[in-house]
Specification:
Elements: H1 2-19, E1 23-27, H2 33-42, E2 46-50, H3 54-61, H4 72-80, E3 84-86, E4 97-100, H5 115-124, E5 133-136, H6 144-154, E6 165-168, E7 187-191, H7 194-204, E8 211-214, H8 217-247, H9 252-259, H10 283-292, H11 299-324, E9 334-338, H12 353-363, E10 367-371, H13 395-399, E11 403-406, H14 415-421, E12 425-427, E13 439-441
Parallel strand pairs: 1-2, 1-4, 2-3, 4-5, 5-6, 7-8, 9-10, 9-11, 11-12, 12-13
Antiparallel strand pairs: 6-7
Helix pairs in contact: 1-7, 2-4, 8-10, 8-11, 11-12
Amino acid sequence: MRDELSTGHLQQLIAKFSDRSAVIGIIGLGYVGLPLTLRYAAVGFKVLGIDIDAAKVDKLNAGASYIEHIGAAQIAQARAHGFEATTDFSRAGEADALIICVPTPLNAYREPDLSFVLGTTDALLPHMRAGQIVSLESTTYPGTTEEELRPRLESRGLVVGDDVFLVFSPEREDPGNPLFETRTIPKVCGGSTPACLQAGLALYGPAIDRVVPVSSTRAAELTKLLENIHRAVNIGLVNEMKIIADKMEIDIHEVIRAAATKPFGFTAYYPGPGLGGHCIPIDPFYLTWKARQYGLHTRFIELAGEINSDMPHWVIGKLADALNARSQSVKGSRVLVLGIAYKKDVEDMRESPSVELMEILRDKGAEVAYSDPHVPVFPPMREHQFDLASVPLSAATIAAYDVVLLATSHSAFDYALIQQHARLIVDTRGVYLERLSNVVKA
């Protein structure tokens, strides 16, 4: 009888995804969850969004957006297709799919913090029913889905693979990247059981151009970590090369541009003031933490992490040396930080190295201000507090600062104006390619 019921649950679920009568529940309506919401609504599904932030929910239900690269028109279109946002977790039973898109930060000891994932799962459990699929998209260490989520689901008497279906499908969003969108980025999916994988492929197939199945949730979890650790390690390499090139009085950006002309065997990575974003600075620590349970020491990954983590201090050292050469000290100097988002042309400040630069400067006694067209007011953050608003750039304001620290190279900045009127520029992004008397590359 159970085999018949389990087959029935799976086939009914697959049929609902196929004819788009399924209700898609997305938990966490941020940089991952909101684009996914819009995609499912665009292909004809009714979407129920659940988020603990009442202000976000109210904005979405009013047809407004809180993410810069997502327009209000897109929200309004999703609303017209039946999208609704709520803070009420008890409505989870209305959804056929529950896709979890919540943060996975690090704790104070640089260890995985699964409190958002586990808290969300525990909040959903009392309202779950047979015939649902749960997909975790939050980046995490291999084993999380099987070791943490599966026992919680089965504690309610729901048999995974029979009554409910469980998959891990890592998010791959790249905010502000015009070359890719949710639909066109291939989606990796691993299931707890073969039936779970079938359900996962049926869930994502209507919304994503290409779904890539893997053998297990653990393989899917490690896939996401490999993608981001690959980037972190290569950035660590090029940041170390930057330090070497600086000592040799060679412009690392000139070297990278020259190396990138090789049509095979080389991929260009670029140095910066540190790593930013929710994934790249965090994901390596998820794997190193898990590897220790197997008696392994991830020396290569950790070395890259040390180099990248030290970059803000190296940049401030370069800034201090440049001020010293002008008979000035960091203490008492007026510093304007250009760009506090973690990357170019977005408003996302998660793990932004610019904020660490600002804190180091403040601790050293500098008077710190910032200019960022994407961040008009410094937002509330869990670990960082600045009561500041973006300084509008003009010849007079630029000239009023002792040093301009170029931390994020937004396209909207007038770099010619900045160079013309700044007393001193510390360029961490290689914007100024030629040698200029008032530019120091860091």
